[in-house]
Amino acid sequence: MIGTYYQLVSLPDQVRASNKIKSKARLDCISFSDKVAGNYQGLTNFVNSKGQLFFYKTPCRDFVNTDSKRLAEWSLTKDSLNLSSIFIEDIDYPEIGYGYPNANRLLANGSPNPLFPFRNDGYLFLINKDYSEIGMFIIPDGRNLISSYYQKMIDGGFDDEIRTLRAQAKSYYLYEGLVL
Questions:
Q1: Where are the alpha helices (DSSP H) in 128-158?
Q2: For the residues of 61-76, what is the DSSP string, one character each?
Q3: Which of 67, 87, 131, 171 is the most buried if burial means most Cβ atoms within 10 Å?
Q4: % of the chain surpassing 70 pLDDT
């Protein structure tokens, strides 16, 4: 059911310095596993010219206009594009969240939304306490049932699948000085 896994981390200070990365809010993809035939294409707009896939951990209150009861604390962004907010509805499980891409055809600035073709995908997140490591799991066409998948993840229903995806993960980008 889960199609793709990405391991996002805040790189150690020495590795950031070696790779000329200044932001401490940046989360870089260091490994991934993909069961989708032809590889998942929904994140290509977040890959830079060096081939690095990364996001910034951004407080939602800085840019999201929504009902205050529905507001997530953090979002994953790059440039002016928001991949997803990270919603945590069960406060007993703050390490598990969910989200999905913007489903609008156009962005707020009027330009085409590059995530529109992937608007029906759902994201599940495993998060450490300080958000310096996030496991992102993509369920193609999972948006409409993401609340159910979120509960299934809380109940341990994806544990075996997650272990398999993590065991099969391969390096995404080789950062200078990073030892996996």
A1: 146-154
A2: GGT--S-TTS--SEEE
A3: 87
A4: 93
